């Protein structure tokens, strides 16, 4: 019925309908032009910022891009190994009975791999949390909630992966542990001032020229377990 009334009104008032249509079209064209100008200005500011600070978003993804050769080679190697029955003394750790008793296509019967994956994954989350810059006073509350939510999401994701690693084949768990370990070493390596200088990455103000010492001090300030390990109260 609404379509019928619209057709009847259009037939009786063609001039009014044409005026409304032209106004709507002009508004759409004007809005599209404004949006185009805003997008153009954003791109211009983005380009100037990248040139001024010598940075680019692809640099933040460099740590992930470096892992592609590892992913490809490890995937093919695990596919080749999954068809063989493993035995002790052929490169597998004797402390992990899963590798010597069953193949890599079976799920983990011990919790060595899942707990290793959980610890390494949480280490990545906590390093990113401890390296965060101090929030600005004007929006400290907003940034604090953003940091906390990111940390909670990281913990929840690692707990989910921990559960999945107990039911998936061991080959996939080995893949996840290797990838998480590679990511951890990459994060620690990229913190070095000389590496950042070679990669043309500026130093973080809260880390300075001694990022590892500051990371250790902040870790001991945050966690009582680490203070007990180092014999500090």
UniProtKB/TrEMBL annotation:
Single GO cellular component term: mitochondrial inner membrane
InterPro entries: YidC/ALB3/OXA1/COX18 (IPR001708)
Keywords attached to this entry: Membrane, Transmembrane, Transmembrane helix
Its membrane topology: Multi-pass membrane protein
Entry protein name: Mitochondrial inner membrane protein COX18
Annotated transmembrane regions: 104-125, 152-177
Record GO biological process: mitochondrial respiratory chain complex IV assembly; protein insertion into mitochondrial inner membrane from matrix
Subcellular location field: Membrane
Predominant location category: membrane
GO molecular function: membrane insertase activity
Keyword Transmembrane set for record: yes
Keyword Chaperone part of the UniProt annotation: no
Domain of life: Eukaryota
